[in-house]
Specification:
This protein is of the alpha+beta class. The protein contains five helices and ten strands. The protein has one domain: B-lactam Antibiotic, Isopenicillin N Synthase, Chain (Jelly Rolls, Sandwich), CATH 2.60.120.330. It is globular, with a radius of gyration of 18 Å. This is Phytanoyl-CoA dioxygenase family protein.
């Protein structure tokens, strides 16, 4: 039967929406309660919706009964602190699974490439239902930072780099694309991440905000790119050697974040 997917994401796996006037909204993310939950880099997460409405970040399949990343329960204490962020996450009208704000500390390009991962959004997702993708709303003004997307984790050919000023809005099939962020700055980057179920509601939302897979490539000096490739290879080799010494094979597991 196959999953219900958004045609707009079919070719490249992502769309960029109209920019949001983020500077007009209060900085609600600063008041939220955060968990020290590590994903791709030095991170913390502040959940707005979780498996059972508790302030935790675990995959829904790790709860009892286990389920896919759908039907998240809104956390009253967090929603009260961030009504605008909650409104934006709910606006598409699509089913919401996990919804949380990520706090990312400065991360150079080489570390970003090492951190590239795919998300396990659709574990236990029944065939014939909507494919889970993720929305990313950049909250802080990180003009020197950029999102990295790849079809192949270690192949820079066709790498997509998307700028992250305040108000940048993306929807990404993060189970298809390897992704992480290069954050060039001295202060943390904050971003709202929402798991949405594909279907007519999400399609209408993408159309309303002129979703497109055309983008302006964030320019990075060649020497920085080359250093990043080398750093990724060095760290991958070090990880492989670590596991080999334990008689194990290093695995690039999907992220639960």
């Amino acid at each position: 039967m196959g999953y219900i997917k958004s045609e707009a994401l079919e070719e490249k796996g992502f769309v960029i929406l109209d920019s949001y006037a983020q500077e007009l909204d209060p900085k609600e993310w600063l008041d939220l309660e955060y968990n020290d939950w590590k994903s791709s880099g030095d991170t913390r997460f502040a959940p707005l919706a979780s498996a059972k409405g508790e302030i935790e970040c675990n995959g829904f399949w790790n709860h009892k009964p286990p389920r896919t990343d759908k039907d998240g329960v809104w956390i009253d204490s967090q929603v009260e602190k961030a009504p605008n962020l909650t409104r934006r996450a709910k606006e598409p009208g699509a089913n919401v699974g996990r919804c949380r704000v990520i706090e990312l500390q400065p991360t150079p390009y080489g570390d970003c490439l090492y951190n590239l991962h795919q998300d396990d959004n659709n574990r236990l997702n029944p065939d014939g239902t909507g494919w889970v993708v993720r929305g990313f709303f950049n909250l802080t003004d990180d003009k020197d930072s950029f999102f990295v997307l790849r079809e192949n984790r270690t192949d820079p050919q066709g790498e997509v780099r998307i700028a992250l000023p305040a108000g940048a809005q993306l929807i990404i099939d993060t189970q298809r694309l390897w992704h992480a962020t290069t954050h060039n700055g001295t202060e943390p980057r904050y971003n709202l991440i929402t798991s949405w179920t594909s279907g007519p509601e999400l399609d209408a939302y993408i159309e309303k905000y002129h979703g497109t897979d055309q983008h302006t490539q964030f320019e990075v000096p060649q020497d920085v790119l080359e250093h990043g490739y080398a750093e990724q290879a060095r760290k991958d080799a070090a990880r492989a050697a670590y596991y080999a010494a334990k008689g194990q094979q290093a695995k690039l597991a999907m992220s639960e974040a």
